[in-house]
Every structure is written in structure tokens, then in C-alpha cells.
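thread: overnight batch results

M.L. [08:02]
morning all. the overnight job finished for the chain we discussed friday. pasting input first so we're all looking at the same thing
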Amino acid sequence: MNFVTAPSILSADFSCLESEIKKIEQIPDSWVHIDVMDGHFVPNLTFGSCVIKSIRKKTSLFFDAHLMVDNPSSFLEEFADAGVNAITFHIEETHFPLRLVKEIKALGLKVGVSLNPVTPISMVYHLLPLIDILLVMSVEPGFSGQKFIPFSIDKIQEANRIRKEQNLHFLISVDGGINQDTAERVLSSGADILVMGSFFFKNDFSFVKNFLSTLRER
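M.L. [08:03]
and the structure it wrote out:
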């Protein structure tokens, strides 16, 4: 199986963040998933552009900033300057998504749109030809360590069907509850990117590395 592994540094050990990122570098075809939360759109509060700028100096990995924030347009230039490669925003948090897509592209960045578990794909149907990443949330956003929501599979399959029927090229990313029990089913349903938090950083790294290697060989 071909896929991108995108560990979420929200689950990393912040006392040794550089070494945690070095783990990601050992995994082929990997990105860094950066969960930015403002304490409003979701109850949790994480990190801002200063942290991103500091870790940008330590790696050349692709950075996808997942903005779980109110008024995402106000953060675009700040995160672009910090060195992210993609910005993913929530469709639920913008009244002018087409404008936001254009603003992100104007900064030379990849564009992602995220859907909460109960948000249907129809909400972003007209954006699909314009975006690079469709992020399917398979848990409620805001906290790591949650269990995978089973009906997320239907949404992944629907996105994959639309992509094939319209010959589109966006990547399907899945975030939440990805582990040794769910990863293969998610990929088989059409996903391209596995966002991993607790599974990647809280387990023995040799186990995680071997699991991902074995998964690629299937």
C-alpha cells in the first residue's frame, strides 16, 4: 500500500520535540501534522507560529497546519511565514471558503479542507476540484486519544468515489483513532494520508516502525 504517514505532534513529548521529529524522519513518505487550536473552535489550546518556526529549523519534512480556530483567514500569513507547506481549515468555521482557498493558494501553499464527523461531503463538493487535501475527521476535533468513529469509513469511500468519477486529484487524509486496528481498513477505503497521534508517539517506536513497514508491503 502506498500512503503518507502524518504523525500529529500534538501527541509528541514536548520535552524532546526535536528527537520526536527525528522519529518521523525515519518513516518513508512522512509529513508532520500540526494541530493548531485556539481554545474557541475546540476547547483545547495548543501552539502557534513560534513553535512551528522553531521546529522548521530542525527538519525539511512537509508541514500540514491543521487550523482548528475561529477566523482562520487571520492566521494565514503568520503560518506561511513560519514555514508550513499546507494549511487545512475547517469548513464549519468559514462563511467564505472559496475566498479562503484562494488566499492560501496565493501564499504558495497547498490547501486542505477538513470535515467534522457529522459534516457531509456535500458541504465541500464544489471545492473538491480546487483543493489538495480533504481531511476527514474520524473523531471529534480537539483531543488526542479518541476512538475511531466507524461511520467515517462511509465518508472516505464517498470521497474516493467522487474523486474517481470526476477525475480529481485531491488527497484523502484521515485524522483520529488511526492505529493497528483501523489503518488498513481506512487505506482500503481510499485514504492516502494517515494522521497518527497517540499510536505513533505513545507506543514503542520499533513496533510502530515495523507496523508501518509491514502495512506498506501489503
